[in-house]
Amino acid sequence: MSESPRKILHVDMDAFYASVEQRDDPALRGRPVVVAWRGARSVVCAASYEARKFGVRSAMPALRAERLCPHAVFVPPDFVRYKAVSKQVREIFARHTDLIEPLSLDEAYLDVTRTFTHLPTATATAEAIRAAIREETDLTASAGVAPNKFLAKIASDWRKPDGIFVIRPHQVEAFLAPLPVGRLPGVGKVMEAKLAELGVSTVGDLRTLGLSALEQRFGRWGRRLHELAHGIDEHPVVSERPTMQISAEDTFEHDLFLAEIEPHIRRLAEKAWQGYERERAAPHGRIARTVVLKLKTDDFRILTRSLTPPEPPASLEALADIACALRERVELPSRTRYRLVGVGLSGFVDADRLAAQSDLFG
């Protein structure tokens, strides 16, 4: 740990989409609410805490959610409303600091080492933010307070919903020791299994292996594991991240052959292009050089094909034409059916840099 650790908050809205629906429709309050379109291909966007008691979770198939909780109220998502509320919450954050790193519409990291409000502690800042969210949006948020990002994220989940949990610098080692190693960021099921083979199930167990043994076994990732086990994370809160990709995708109601999906590619290209135009119009707008086509087969295999043409796509038509042409690079049998298609733009560069390259090689 550094001598003067950062003060980091992770603020996470409670069951955000479902809570907005319950707030705006009093008839839904206290009832199990599932935010999802109905249908065989739909997945759950969010579930109220009443629905979670039945095992309903985000990203599970809507049909399974319906089986788990037959009396749930299904509400189609309304992202325009959710984005508007998210904007309100971000404005509350911005009263305290400009070091805000949104992770999604409903959660963000804040660096409150120094704040505009000069509240005496990071905990006081977190409480002020939660109180303002409650008063101004009629919703609740949970917060984690810690010396770094990964600890703050763990802490925000500790007393959900509508809670706050603080991990002070001197508490870090003791707090982490009994946690399952799977709570560390980047440790998924595969890594958990590998660590279990070494007799590691908790963070405390992981520490006993030591840095050299972890590096020998896992290379650079071993060093990262060692740091995380001791609560070390120097990643700063990044208030602005450059755009890496803009995309749109959709799951079909019925599986389709490759030759049948051109209308869907062109429709999704239009959605992606709209987002791209907003990016280009921004003060530091950037240019995308690569077109990406994403496909998911009926057996859930994911394929991506991409092309970086000599000149970046300059129109919606150019984007759609390239995306459609990328189907020719799919080498699966013609009888293969597909359940999802996506169209994206990536390879973003600054417009000034691209212009300089054009002048250099023109």
TrEMBL record:
For the ligand (Mg(2+)), the binding residues are D12, D106
Q: Name one GO molecular function term.
A: DNA-directed DNA polymerase activity
Q: Do you know which Gene3D superfamilies this protein is assigned to?
A: 3.30.70.270, 3.40.1170.60, 5' to 3' exonuclease, C-terminal subdomain, DNA polymerase, Y-family, little finger domain
Q: What is its main location?
A: cytoplasm
Q: What is catalyzed by this enzyme?
A: DNA(n) + a 2'-deoxyribonucleoside 5'-triphosphate = DNA(n+1) + diphosphate
Q: What does this protein do?
A: Poorly processive, error-prone DNA polymerase involved in untargeted mutagenesis. Copies undamaged DNA at stalled replication forks, which arise in vivo from mismatched or misaligned primer ends. These misaligned primers can be extended by PolIV. Exhibits no 3'-5' exonuclease (proofreading) activity. May be involved in translesional synthesis, in conjunction with the beta clamp from PolIII.
Tell me if DNA damage is a UniProt keyword of this record.
yes
Keyword terms? Cytoplasm, DNA damage, DNA repair, DNA replication, DNA-binding, DNA-directed DNA polymerase, Magnesium, Metal-binding, Mutator protein, Nucleotidyltransferase, Transferase
Q: Which cofactor does it need?
A: Mg(2+)
Q: Does the keyword DNA damage apply?
A: yes
- Catalytic residues identified in the record: E107
Q: Which EC number(s) are documented for this chain?
A: 2.7.7.7
Family matches, as CDD domains? PolY_Pol_IV_kappa
Q: What is this protein called?
A: DNA polymerase IV
Any note on cofactor binding? Answer: Binds 2 magnesium ions per subunit.
Taking every annotated instance into account, which residue ranges of this chain make up the domain UmuC? 8-188
Q: What class of enzyme is it?
A: transferase
Q: Tell me the classification of the organism that encodes this protein.
A: Bacteria, Pseudomonadati, Pseudomonadota, Gammaproteobacteria, Lysobacterales
Please state which protein family the record places this protein in.
Answer: Belongs to the DNA polymerase type-Y family.
Locate the site labelled Substrate discrimination.
Y17
| Assembly | Monomer.
Q: Where in the cell is it found?
A: Cytoplasm
